[in-house]
Amino acid sequence: MDRLYRVLLVEDELYDAELNIREIKKILPNSVFERVDCKNAFIKMIETYFPDIIISDYNMPSFDGLSALKIASEICPATPFIVVTGSINEDTAVDCMKAGATDYVLKDSLKRLGSSVLNALEQSKIRKERMDAFKTIQLNETKYRYMFHSNPQPMWIYDVETLAFLEVNEAALKHYGYTQEEFLLMNLKDILPKNEIERLLDNTDTSDYQHINTDEWTHKKKNGELFSVEIVSYFIIFHQRNARHVLINDITERKKAEEKLIRERKLLRTLIDNLPVTIYVKDAECRKIIANRADMEVIGAKTEEEVLGKTDMEIFSNDIGARGYADDKRLIETGIPVLNKEEFFYDANGIQHWLLTSKIPLTDENGKITGLVGIGHHITEQRKMQAELVEAKEKAEESDRLKSAFLANMSHEIRTPLNSIIGFSELLDDPDFDSDRKSEFIKHIVDNGNSLLMIISDIMDFSMLEAGQLKLRQQPISVKKIMNELFSEYSHKAETRGIQLRFDDSQNDPDIMITSDSYRIKQVFNNLIGNSLKFTSEGFIEIGYKAKGEEIEFHVKDSGIGISPKFHQAIFERFRQVDTTKSRKYGGNGLGLAISKNLVQLLGGKIWLKSEPNQYSDFFFTIPI
Ligand code: ADP
């Protein structure tokens, strides 16, 4: 024992004190001593000297051992107290021990004092340790009370095998509406609604005791009210039982708020998905974070996931992507919105869509641009309508122009033969002309009369066709016969103009009979051959036909001025002529091909042409057999 021990001697006799010191020093050479012999000095020493052990005489003139013992057990109960006395009877010894003395030693056997002191110090040490342990327990209990029972967080401990509650705190009792007695008579199942009990049983079967569990449950209060909780639990040993300490968080409000948020999000989503405009949101890197259904349709994506996180460059792999990305980037950098920009896209089927797009920057609370929101209105139909309107306007203007040209033509086409007829008729009266000249005049009158008749019948036919009034006279006819008649009718006319009329019968069967209107077929031929004669100054005109399946294909070809491809459709429209200038070289009213087209269609066939300008024109038309 190396440490320094403070020894307090309560002794009036100096000599006895010395004897005591000598004995103690044998055992505790490091000890120091103080001596007192009255009450006041004793109390003062205890309070200032803090003795490790007190050695007291039993009988003193102004003090006594028992009183000292009583004072010591009040002020410093842990300090060992040894009574040293000259004589002691048994009662005194019992009194001393009862009053808390550690030991007593007779002056006769003072040699025992050393070992007695040693024992007392040892016992005191043990007692002190016990006291410390007791204090720790007491402290822990206070802490436990504070941390468990008074904790505002509802909590309990339950037995993992029986599910019985072993401990519950005030907050939990208050929240669930039970008294402590009621609560501790229940088990976990009693605070769960039916549907949760099954889950609990599954859960406890499989749960690993040693892990911290976090989970959401529905719990039931004493009054039957259900509420949502989030629990955290962990394994503990409680009174030698396997148990779990459970912390309960009422999340009913949070859940309600979450559900409300989900409902609102759903509503918003339904709204934006059902709007007929494209709506999307992009982040500061121009990546899509929201795309509504209309937007996905424009992109040609089936799910939103296909486009989320991607820029336009990644979504559209062409110029459209570069265009969109450049706009987005500029907007993010400058904050200047894109307003009402007409843009086109191609959907999954390659169909072009036009959108009127506006993009607006999104900012955070500090005004920093965090992304953009884009809206696109479909304007494909409007654009189509606009184009149709423009086309209709152009058509109306063209039609107006054509009508004017037609009227000018007509007046020319009608006046010319009429003037001839009137002029030559007047000359017939003139006696200056002989009968030869007069028969020449009559021929002119007849020719011009025929021209006039043709023009008038063209107009009549066209009006009838337009009004759907023209009736066909269907009867069996020989194609070859028609062709022969046409040939003999026109070969002379052609010859007089230095053109050869030829009949291409290379591919013809001996004869084909069809049921149709021969008069109208001939009328079509008359128009086509008439045009060929008009527009061919040298070379040939060829007529022919061949059977093609259920149809006969007729054709009239010439080596005339030909027709530029851009007029191949237009010349079949009424009043259409390639040359519409006033100084037209060739006559005509622009009705012949329109009438022919209508007639062929009425007969059940179609009409078209092949031609090379300055080389040839080849008109084809079909008639069903
Ligand atoms: P038109 O009375 O003016 O001949 P058509 O309807 O018969 O009226 O023909 C319309 C236009 O088609 C003609 O004005 C002419 O410009 C062109 N055309 C028709 N047939 C021929 C042809 N065989 N060769 C060249 N141009 C032709």
* Main sheet makeup: 5 strands, parallel
> How much is the average pLDDT?
90
Annotated CATH homologous superfamily of the largest domain: Histidine kinase-like ATPase, C-terminal domain
Total of domains? 4
Shape: rod-shaped
In terms of per-residue confidence, which ranges show pLDDT below 50 for 5 or more consecutive residues?
none
What is the CATH C-level name of the largest domain? Alpha Beta
Largest sheet: spatial strand order = 2-1-3-4-5
Oligomeric description of these chains: single chain
Number of helices: 17
CATH architecture of the largest domain: 2-Layer Sandwich
Question: Rg from C-alpha positions?
Answer: 63 Å
Fraction of residues in helices?
Answer: 40-55%
CATH topology of the largest domain: Heat Shock Protein 90
Number of strands: 22
Structural class: alpha+beta
Alpha-carbon distance between the termini?
140 Å
The small molecules bound here are: adenosine-5'-diphosphate
Strand content: 15-25%
For the structure shown, list the relevant keywords.
single chain, 625 residues, alpha+beta, Rossmann fold, Beta-Lactamase, 5-stranded antiparallel beta sheet, binds adenosine-5'-diphosphate
